[in-house]
Amino acid sequence: MENNCNTESNVKNCHRAVVTGASSGIGAATVRTLAADGWQVVALARREEKLRALADEVNAEQGSDVVTYAVADITDEASTQAAVDQVLAAGEVKALVNCAGAAFGKDPVATANLDDWRGMYELNVIGTLRITQKLLPALKRTEGTVLVISSTAGIEPYEGGAGYCASKFAERVMARVLRLEQVGEPVRIVDISPGMVQTEEFSLKRFGGDADRAASVYAGVPNPLKAEDIAECVRWALAQPDTVDIDSIVVRPRAEGSYTKVFRTA
Ligand SMILES: NC(=O)c1ccc[n+]([C@@H]2O[C@H](COP(=O)([O-])OP(=O)(O)OC[C@H]3O[C@@H](n4cnc5c(N)ncnc54)[C@H](OP(=O)(O)O)[C@@H]3O)[C@@H](O)[C@H]2O)c1
C-alpha cells in the first residue's frame, strides 16, 4: 500500500489513520486491523501505558514502526489541539476513526444523574465534533474519510438508555448532516452503528465497575459481536475507492434483532 504522507504530491495515496478510543475495545482492534492492512496508524486515547503497549505489540508484529500514539482527552480543547498538532507535524492524514465513546449509567429519565448525561454528551458528541472539526481540512487534502462508530442506540432508543441513546442519535445526526454539507467536497463520511459488542471495559464503565452487572449484559447470548468484527467493517469501508462512500453500516450479532429482542440460551 502506498504511503505518501510526508510529501506534497500524491497525498491522496497517504494511508495514515487517526483512531480515537484506541486504548481498548473496538479502537484497539481497529488499530491492529488497519496496521495489518498496510496503514500507518496514530492511536489516540488518555491512557499512555495502554497506547504504548499496543504500539509496541503491533510494531513488533509488523517489523516496523507503523503505529505511533497521541495521548489526549477529546473533551479538553487544549489537549485535543496539542494531539492534532503532533499528528499533523508528522504527516498527512487519510482517515479519522472516531471510536472514543462511553455509556454512563442506565437510570430512567425520571431519576437519571445529570453528570452521567453531561459526561456522555461531552465525550460522544462534543468530543467527536471537536476532533472532527480539527482534522477535516487535512482529511480533505488527502481525499480522506471521517468515520464515526455510533451505535444502534442511535437508531432505536430503549428504557434506561435515554442519555446514551440521545448522545448516539446526536452523533449519527452529526455524521449525516456533515455528509450533506460536504457533498461536492473531497471527503467521505461513514457511520458504523454496531449492536451488542462484547468488549472488556464498555459495560464495566457503564455500571461503575460492577462486574456482575456488566457480565449480565452478555449472559447467555451466543456469539455477541467482537471488537474485531467492527474493526473489519472499518477496514472494509476504508478500503473502497475514495469516491465510494459507505454511508452507513448497521451491524449486529445474529442473536440480536433489536436491543430489546435478544436471544439468550439461559
Ligand atoms: N461495546 C458495545 O457494545 C458498543 C456497541 C455500539 C457502539 N459502541 C461504541 O463503540 C465505541 C467504542 O466502544 P468499546 O466497546 O470499544 O468501549 P471501550 O473499550 O470502553 O473504549 C472506549 C475508548 O474511548 C477512550 N476514551 C474515553 N474517554 C476518552 C476521552 N475523554 N478522550 C479520549 N479517549 C477517550 C478510552 O480510552 P481512555 O480511557 O484511555 O481515554 C477507550 O479507548 C464507543 O463510542 C461506543 O459507544 C460500543
TrEMBL record:
InterPro entries noted in UniProt? NAD(P)-bd_dom_sf, SDR_fam
Molecular function as annotated in GO? oxidoreductase activity, acting on the CH-OH group of donors, NAD or NADP as acceptor
Keywords in alphabetical order: Oxidoreductase
Record's protein name: Oxidoreductase
What species was this sequence derived from?
Bifidobacterium oedipodis
Instruction: Specify one Pfam family.
Output: adh_short
Q: Which family does it belong to?
A: Belongs to the short-chain dehydrogenases/reductases (SDR) family.
